[in-house]
Amino acid sequence: MGQTRLKSSFIYLANAVNDLRANWAALAIVLAPLVLIAAVCVLPDALNLQHLLAVRFAPGLHHVSLLPAQDSAAPVVEVQPLFPRWALLLFHILLAILTVTVQLFVMCTIRRVQAGVQHPQMFTEAIAIYREAIQQVPAFLWIRLLQIAAIVIGCVLLIVPGLLILVWLYFAEFALVFDGHRSFAALLRSRNLLRKRFFRTAIRIVVFMAVWSGYNSWVAGTFFLASFLIGPLGSYTGSLWTSVLLLGTLATAVGFATTAFFVAAGARLYRDLVLMLEEDARAPASTSLPATEPLPAANS
Length: 300
Prior knowledge:
Blueprint: H1 9-21, H2 24-57, H3 85-115, H4 122-157, H5 159-168, H6 172-179, H7 183-193, H8 198-237, H9 240-287
């Protein structure tokens, strides 16, 4: 059996397509509710904006008149928002949690494919993925919090240590889902995987993140331009919330799909690193010299 080697970054990205295609139907069912909830989390802001526009520019409530710029009698319309700030904050926190935990659901889906424990019925498989992922949400969020704390501490010291820590701890979540390591053990597992191969792995992680950010930038730009076309139309017709819901659903679906794609590529890279670590552990036993035989007795 040949020794495991790190492949090219783009080979990992290409293989990620096959990993997702192996269980794409169940993955789509799993991500669909998350996409809808994330899109709904954006609605309160849109409804507040629509309410503001309706009150200030509704026909029959105001008339057009010429008023001096310094006229203190100019009417000031104070509009009370439909949703208070604390409610908006809760929706934003929920949106942030969904954006983070979507990686967990994708990892659980890929883990079941690799373990060969898929259920033949899609909905049953999706329910099994939800059960497995929900059980690990607290541990997943705790690991993510530890990662953020370590990266922030590194960045406070200097920027470079923060970036190095980001690479060192990149595979902590994978260690949780695929190998069952929790808390600090997952962080140490990620660090051990990168020993003797830090820079080679870091190059592939940088490529993943560069392609990911570039793709998301194009997607964000596309939806930003679409909002200029659909937004005014929705505001004029009084259906701004519908426009925001549609745009939010599409944007979230594309964002979660790209997240699943790069998580699958990271899972491939993680699996190769685990195999290489296991091969390193077996190397001393396989390369040790055989025991020497006793020298023949000298003739007297």
